[in-house]
Structure formats: structure tokens, C-alpha cells
């Protein structure tokens, strides 16, 4: 169907504008963390907010007040999870994964690659994007909690030195980490 009624178009304009304004207000009120990409829960909130906005815009059976309440509920739950994570290491361990070391001092860590379902080609792509010519020039590649690959420093060929700065603490091969 191409066109149903002028009222439907008017509803989308009015409800869409009000829902958008309410969402922007709630996001400003709840802080930057609500739309951060720090972990899986943050991604869920971002997707859920978008889905809720689309539902409020296009579904006549969902009232604007219900949509705004859904926005507030999602932002409130995200705030509660972040608040508890900061204050409780046990809760933080429950809801977040740890970064995973995939390459260390030019050597691929195959067990970690398999466990995280990351290919060598994906690691090589991250190295190229960071301007590192090859794995032997990289200090480390880390799979972050948000799913991105971070390349840590590059070292000239033949340079040994530890260089494992504090950003790798607890992740070095042989150290136990939670996932």
C-alpha cells in the first residue's frame, strides 16, 4: 500500500518529533555511557532504543507515553548496570568480558584466536589499518570488550625488550584471565 491516510502521516510527524525529542532529552540526562560501545550490554541498549523509536513511530497501537516510558526504562537499566559494574567487581565480572590477547611480540596466540573465533586474516587487517607492516613489528593485538581489535605499539625488527606496558597487565601469555 502506498498511501493510507493523511492522519497516518500527521501522526508520524507529530509522534516522531516528540519521541525523538524525548529520546534526546533522556540520553542527555542519562549521560554519555548510555550510547557507549564498551560491552555487549551497551550494544543491546543502543539497538533496543532504536527499535523502540521505530515501533513508536510506525505502530499505531503504541502510544507515545508508552514509548517514552520504554526509553526511560532502557536508559535506567543501563545506568543501573553501569553503576553496579563500577562499584562491584563481582557484578562487573558477571556482565563484562575481559580483553583477549591475540598476538604478542609478533607471535600469534592460536588458542586465543580459536577461543575468540578470530582469524589471522582479521588480525592482519587490524595491523594494516594501524600502519604496522607485519605481525613481527607489533607488540600486541588485543580483542577489546567491544569487539574491536587494538594494535599496541610497533617495534623495529630485531628489537626484543619487553615493552609490555601496563595496558597489557594481566593479559600476557600464561596468565589466567576471565572471559
Automatic annotation (TrEMBL):
It comes from the Bacteria. InterPro entries: DUF421 (IPR007353), UPF0702_alpha/beta_dom_sf (IPR023090), YetF_N (IPR048454). The chain crosses the membrane at residues 6-27, 39-58, 64-86. It is found in: Cell membrane. Belongs to the UPF0702 family. Keywords: Cell membrane, Membrane, Transmembrane, Transmembrane helix. GO terms for cellular component: plasma membrane. It is a multi-pass membrane protein. This is DUF421 domain-containing protein. It comes from Teichococcus aestuarii.
Amino acid at each position: 500500500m502506498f498511501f493510507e491516510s493523511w492522519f497516518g502521516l500527521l501522526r508520524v510527524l507529530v509522534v516522531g518529533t516528540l519521541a525523538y525529542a524525548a529520546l534526546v532529552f533522556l540520553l542527555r540526562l542519562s549521560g554519555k555511557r548510555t550510547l557507549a560501545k564498551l560491552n555487549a550490554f551497551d550494544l543491546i541498549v543502543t539497538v533496543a532504543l532504536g527499535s523502540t523509536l521505530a515501533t513508536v513511530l510506525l505502530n499505531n497501537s503504541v502510544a507515545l507515553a508508552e514509548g517514552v516510558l520504554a526509553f526511560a526504562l532502557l536508559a535506567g537499566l543501563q545506568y543501573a548496570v553501569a553503576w553496579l559494574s563500577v562499584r562491584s567487581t563481582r557484578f562487573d565480572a558477571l556482565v563484562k568480558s575481559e580483553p583477549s590477547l591475540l598476538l604478542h611480540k609478533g607471535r600469534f596466540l592460536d588458542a586465543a584466536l580459536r577461543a575468540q573465533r578470530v582469524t589471522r586474516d582479521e588480525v592482519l587487517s587490524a595491523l594494516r589499518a594501524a600502519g604496522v607492516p607485519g605481525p613481527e613489528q607489533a607488540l600486541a593485538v588485543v580483542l577489546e570488550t567491544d569487539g574491536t581489535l587494538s594494535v599496541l605499539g610497533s617495534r623495529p625488527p630485531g628489537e626484543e625488550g619487553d615493552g609490555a606496558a601496563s595496558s597489557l597487565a594481566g593479559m600476557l601469555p600464561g596468565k589466567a584471565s576471565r572471559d
